[in-house]
């Protein structure tokens, strides 16, 4: 093979791989629409949910999504992301339902141990309240198996009991793309159509499809402090601690969640092509490199999922 043909072949193989992932995702999205009475698509405005929304747009057409978008807002989300969430939903003509952890706090169903406690883990309560309010029987999420060990155990159609809990040993087999979607009263499914995608797949798809993202996914200047091997953004919610030196660095976010637990990484990558190049050589998962709440065993992902987390 000559040197000129090699990049072309690699591009074709990459496109074939992305085509297969996209086809699987569209199949699952259509399966949900055909199977369940009251599904919803969890939409944060983050990169994974935007990829999922792009596939849904291809599956059904703009302005024709058969289910609403649902966002559980901690009240501590990055404003760039929530603004983009609203803009994208409006562009698609999609119904956007937002439920807030702050409202759960007012009802007394969420109680913080102290004012500075992260609200991220408490999203489970607000989510279960939204499921009960709208009687959702399936929630479509953008989680991927490569993100974290507990998520690697997840089925594509992940059963939740009448308490909204996930029991890893009680999950149903998924052979030959046949899904057991039977539900007892009060139960529901969490469905993860991009389970088999990797972070690299997501960024290659974003590059190929020219998917617009919130600006914080790309290089920008931001005040940060170093803490336990992470770069913590300096905000009103995450102020510097005694002895910490505030620096302004060029950073980007690999994943975006609650401000109190999400950290950027140092990076000059200013567009999707440059992020793809960085992701190819990354040796730490995006959550491992950027999430403060995944560092402690008490707040492990598996425990939170058993309690009803996304």
Automatic annotation (TrEMBL):
Spell out the InterPro entries in the cross-references: PAPS_reduct_dom, Rossmann-like_a/b/a_fold, SO4_adenylTrfase_ssu, Sulfate_adenylyltrnsfr_sub2
Instruction: Tell me which Gene Ontology terms the entry assigns under biological process.
Output: sulfate assimilation
Q: Which SUPFAM superfamilies match?
A: Adenine nucleotide alpha hydrolases-like (SSF52402)
Q: Which UniProt keywords are listed? A: ATP-binding, Nucleotide-binding, Nucleotidyltransferase, Transferase
- Stated EC number for the protein is 2.7.7.4
Which residue ranges are recorded for the region named Disordered?
287-310
Q: Which domain of life does the UniProt lineage start with?
A: Bacteria
- What residue stretches are annotated with the Phosphoadenosine phosphosulphate reductase domain? 39-263
Broad class of enzyme this protein falls into: transferase
The cross-references to Pfam families, in alphabetical order and at most eight, read:
PAPS_reduct
Q: Which GO terms fall under molecular function for this chain's record?
A: ATP binding; sulfate adenylyltransferase (ATP) activity
Q: Which PANTHER family match?
A: SULFATE ADENYLYLTRANSFERASE SUBUNIT 2 (PTHR43196:SF1)
- Can you tell me which family this protein belongs to? Belongs to the PAPS reductase family. CysD subfamily.
* Protein name, per record: Sulfate adenylyltransferase subunit 2
Name its species.
Answer: Caenimonas koreensis DSM 17982
